[in-house]
Amino acid sequence: MKSQSRFGGCGPYRGSPTEIFDTSLALIALASHARDECIAMIMKRGASFLIAEQLQDGSWQETTRPSGGKSHVEWISTSAWATQALLVIEAFQKPDRPEIPRWFQFSSRIQMFR
Question: In this prediction, what percent of the chain has a pLDDT beyond 90?
Answer without folding.
Answer: 53
